[in-house]
Amino acid sequence: MKVLVTGANGLIGPYACQKLISAGHDVITCGRSALQAGDLPGRHIAGDLLDASFRKHLIASERPDGLIHLAWQTTHGHFWNAPDNPDWREASIDLLDRFHDQGGKRAVLAGSCAEYDWQGIAAGQKLTEDATCNPHTIYGQEKHKLAQHCLDLNAKGASIAWGRLFLLCGPKEAPARFVPAITRALLAGEAAKMSSGKQIRDFMHVADAGAAFAKLIDHPFTGLINIASGEGHSLLEVAETIKSLIGRGTIAAGSIPDRPDDPPYLVADTSTLTETVGFRREFDLQAALQNCIEWWRSHPA
């Protein structure tokens, strides 16, 4: 199968591409910048997916059988309410329409746990795919609108899986994200500043997330599916695990105020992913964090 992967140079894209190629697929990637040979597995086409003419040319010239759509606005600290979120939804709808018009058969798109109603989660309540959605950010709202569009297309005979990602960790994260921020401070022998750390979160290694999307391209499942570990750990536990693996530094829990809108519990029910699709992770939390530490040790800047 010829599979087009958008956002392939993001956190999970390279891992999805590697799995697709290992499974025998012909992979085409696209992005705004030209890449050096070897940067990504597969063949790369440079262009802006927010440009309608590029989308038209891309689909018409390549005519992919499969589509893994990961591209979106993801700038750390900006994407939640970035004004181009609606542009990405509209571009994604057009990309899907062109994909299907040219004979595309199977699509897997990246959704988000931000689609759910974070304020209505009871402690210990894992989020199933049919949980209430009431996104409080523009990002979550536009992702949810696109999810509904995909469900409508499925009702008309399309084959689309909508993978709702929870928290990710792994190489090349923005330095200000939680795991890199804690890791970099501790590697420097400094106090790692953080909130109280009482919040329970679901972390998944980026390689596992990419592998899940690649597996879904070959699976008949359609509809909503959580892409996560299904395990909850407090942020303080995560920070203390990083500290124990590094062996130096201190955790300054409570040095940053908790955000009043931060949900106390955000963990996925992954029954559909593990039981229906049969996906198994390679990384538990400790192995995932160890991998992050090793990456930041070799990329101190």
Automatic annotation (TrEMBL):
InterPro entries: Epimerase_deHydtase, NAD(P)-bd_dom_sf
UniProt pathway: Bacterial outer membrane biogenesis; LPS O-antigen biosynthesis
Domain NAD-dependent epimerase/dehydratase residue range list: 3-223
One of the Pfam families matching this protein, by short name: Epimerase
SUPFAM superfamilies for this protein: NAD(P)-binding Rossmann-fold domains
Entry similarity comment: Belongs to the NAD(P)-dependent epimerase/dehydratase family.
Protein name per its UniProtKB record: NAD-dependent epimerase/dehydratase domain-containing protein
